[in-house]
Design a protein that fits this description.
Elements: H1 19-42, H2 48-55, H3 63-86, H4 88-108, H5 112-140, H6 143-175, H7 179-182, H8 184-196, H9 213-233, H10 238-264, H11 272-275, H12 278-307, H13 313-341, H14 346-364, H15 371-385, H16 389-400, H17 405-438, H18 440-452, H19 462-496
Length: 502
């Protein structure tokens, strides 16, 4: 077990002599696959109404999103594990091929059920693209310079997630919903060309290496029921809550068996011994909190704007672009600071504290926020949150060492994905439960606004409309306050992390 724990790598000087040439050779090759994988998590959301209108099966339409998330969450640590053994560039080609095949099958699918199945396949490729992109940066860039590159990648990831719904809506409206999937094919061809420019490096597979099949079985038995339980819990249906409880219990049993299995073998799928280090497990817990907060904010900010009548479709786009620009800019600045000074956790420590205060402010003013005020607030939140993910990746990869870069990157991506699922499910649960508990009429109006738009308010007099919108705002107040709890936990974990400098 102790052999899995590596000493931190030797840190090089501030900049390598050929940093410009390294950037041009490496970054585009890993940036495009990351952009594709992250963008595909959200690009389909805007096309769901068009898909439902064309194919029916409205009751199963959410599975198109859930299936990709399931596949990506399962695949991220698996590709990282295999990349460490067989070579990360080689596995990146495999992940890209699986992702592209899934996109083609999506575009040809005759039913929602078939799209969900092919989206799961595409997610199996997308999860590999995300984790291997992070690991390839660590493979060719010295530890001190990784902060700068991870900052770039974090900016790319958030930009892709925010750009996805805008691109999806445009493609579905002008070219049909199948174009949302077909756009991946020319992009994947370019990614294959760029990836071929990277130098092939051998893996670190030892003689007698065996694939951790039992670990994968228990891992799937943990992740799939967990994500399905979160999906069921979000519906607030009594029968669904019972199913969610059963799935959660099954997931916990699988987790216990997974940990037992990973502690017993020499080449575990998940590096449990490595993850027991305080600096690593606190960083991974930070990734859970960050994923929960950021993805929930991106997912529900358009909903808040629409229901509260704060912005048009164009202004929703401005809000999402503000989030991506803020996180991207702050991630790049944070990366440069890490490269110049070697400071790491001090940046997300203060950044997460600022984010907590901003979410509290947003919660207190949810009922009477104006669009410009909201835009400034979420812009500042995005800047504060941009200090986190790049530092997490640098910290975990540096402590993991060069031989376990893939497993380290995969574990961080797994933590972020689980956090994203948990955060969006909990935000939706708190939002709908608070509104319905306050006034069932407000809950019905909320659903009607989502389905028909602002026209649902036309039959109400001004006094009654103000009361109901105030009660709906109370639901958002509680949900935003919940996000403040997540970021406060992230700030606490950052202060407790002993890795302050590389």
């Amino acid at each position: 077990m102790s052999s899995s724990v590596r000493e931190p790598e030797v840190v090089s000087g501030p900049f390598p002599p050929a940093s410009g040439r390294v950037f041009l050779r490496v970054f585009p090759s890993v940036m495009l696959p990351m952009f594709m994988a992250m963008g595909d998590q959200t690009i389909v959301a805007s096309a769901l109404p068009a898909i439902a209108g064309a194919l029916g099966e409205v009751e199963r339409i959410s599975w198109i999103v859930v299936a990709y998330l399931l596949g990506a969450t399962i695949a991220a640590p698996v590709y990282g594990y295999l990349g460490d053994s067989f070579g990360r560039r080689r596995l990146m080609f495999v992940a890209l091929a699986v992702f592209t095949l899934g996109a083609v099958l999506n575009a040809l699918a005759p039913s929602v059920t078939m799209i969900a199945a092919s989206r799961f396949l595409q997610g199996l490729g997308g999860g590999g693209l995300m984790s291997l992109s992070q690991a390839l940066i660590g493979e060719v860039i010295p530890p001190r310079q990784r902060g700068q590159y991870q900052g770039y990648l974090a900016g790319v990831a958030v930009t892709a997630a925010a750009f996805g719904p805008v691109a999806g809506a445009f493609l579905a409206e002008h070219f049909g919903w199948r174009a949302v999937f077909l756009i991946n094919i020319p992009t994947a061809c370019l990614a294959f060309v760029l990836l071929a420019r990277l130098q092939a490096r051998p893996g670190a597979r030892k003689e007698g290496w065996n694939f951790d099949g039992k670990g994968l079985f228990f891992f799937v038995g943990f992740i799939v029921p967990l994500l399905l339980a979160l999906e069921q819990a979000r519906r607030l249906d009594p029968a669904g809550l019972q199913i969610a409880a059963g799935l959660a219990a099954f997931a916990l049993v699988s987790l216990a068996l997974l940990i037992r299995q990973e502690r017993r073998i020499a080449s575990p799928l998940l590096p449990v011994a490595l993850m027991s280090q305080r600096a690593i497990w606190t960083a991974q817990a930070m990734a859970v909190c960050h994923g929960a907060t950021l993805v929930a904010m991106v997912a529900f900010t358009p909903l808040y704007l629409r229901v509260m009548g704060l912005g048009s479709s164009a202004e929703v786009g401005y809000a999402l672009l503000t989030v991506s620009a803020g996180v991207g800019f702050a991630s790049m600045i944070t990366g440069r600071i890490v490269t110049r000074t070697g400071l790491t956790m001090i940046l997300p420590s203060f950044g997460s504290m600022a984010t907590t205060g901003l979410f509290v402010y947003l919660s207190l003013n949810a009922a009477h926020m104006q669009f410009r005020e909201l835009l400034i607030c979420i812009g500042l939140i995005a800047l504060s949150m941009g200090t986190v993910m790049g530092v997490i990746q640098v910290t975990v990869q540096t402590l993991a060492g060069r031989r376990m870069l893939g497993a380290a990157a995969g574990s961080v991506q797994l933590a972020r994905s689980v956090g994203a699922s948990f955060g969006t499910a909990l935000f939706g649960t708190v939002l709908f439960a608070t509104i319905s508990a306050t006034d069932p009429a407000a809950g019905r109006l909320f659903v009607e606004i989502l389905q028909t738009g602002a026209g649902a308010l036309a039959s109400l007099d001004e006094a009654r409309k103000a009361v109901l919108l105030g009660e709906i705002a109370g639901g958002f107040r509680a949900a935003f306050l919940m996000l403040a709890v997540f970021t406060a936990c992230g700030a606490t974990l950052a202060w407790l992390n002993p890795s302050r400098r590389i």
